[in-house]
């Protein structure tokens, strides 16, 4: 069986991090898949999907780490071409990735106790975002 659904939501940009775990769990429930794989993907080059413990301290830490690795106020050749000032967001997206596949076991996401699925919007402005979820299994 293959079941697909979209999540739509608004983000603030500038490393806005959103916990989408509960939304993914509800999609799995609607899919009736008991065992398989859930792929969560975003069709965007300025955002990412990953997992982490979604708590304020760690959210702040990951934002700080990304600012050290890929500073917003640095020079990016991409900005010369498009003049949109979001070269940093494309690199951050590339580093974290735009999809994640998580096993579904007995109708539940196979995640650690403190592990959540998050969406990170790195663009330099608010955006309307769409996340694609596809569950494959039986």
Helix and strand sequence? EEHEEHHHEEEE
Number of helices: 4
Looking at the overall shape, the CATH architecture is Sandwich
What average pLDDT do the residues reach? 97
Low-confidence stretches: none
Radius of gyration: 16 Å
Overall form: elongated
CATH level 3 topology: Jelly Rolls
CATH class: Mainly Beta
Distance between the termini: 6 Å
Query: How many beta-strand segments?
Result: 8
The portion of residues forming beta strands comes to 35-45%
Given helix and strand content, the structural type is alpha+beta
What is the CATH homology-level superfamily? YjbQ-like
Number of domains: 1
Q: How much helix, percentage-wise, in residues?
A: 25-40%
Can you give a write-up of this model?
The protein has one domain (2-137): Jelly Rolls (Sandwich). The chain has helices spanning 21-31, 56-69, 77-82, 87-96; strands spanning 2-11, 16-19, 36-41, 47-52, 99-105, 108-109, 116-121, 127-137. The longest helix has 14 residues, at 56-69. A hairpin with a 2-residue loop joins strand 5 and strand 6. It starts with a strand and ends with a strand. The chain is of the alpha+beta class and 138 residues long. It is elongated and about 50 Å long. The model has no long low-confidence stretch (mean pLDDT 97). The strands form 2 sheets. It has a 5-stranded antiparallel β-sheet with strand order 1-8-3-5-6, with helices on one face. A 3-stranded antiparallel β-sheet has the order 2-7-4.
């Amino acid at each position: 069986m293959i079941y697909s659904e979209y999540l739509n939501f608004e983000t603030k940009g500038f490393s806005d991090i959103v916990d989408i775990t509960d939304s993914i769990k509800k999609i799995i429930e609607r899919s009736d898949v008991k065992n398989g794989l859930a792929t969560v993907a975003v069709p965007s080059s300025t955002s990412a999907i990953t997992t982490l413990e979604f708590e304020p301290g760690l959210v702040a830490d990951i934002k700080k780490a990304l600012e050290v690795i890929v500073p917003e106020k640095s020079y990016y050749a991409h900005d010369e071409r498009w003049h949109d000032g979001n070269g940093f967001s494309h690199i951050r997206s590339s580093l974290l990735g735009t999809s994640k596949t998580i096993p579904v076991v007995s109708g539940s996401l196979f995640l650690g106790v403190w592990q959540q699925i998050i969406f990170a919007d790195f663009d330099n402005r608010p955006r309307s975002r769409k996340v694609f979820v596809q569950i494959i299994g039986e």
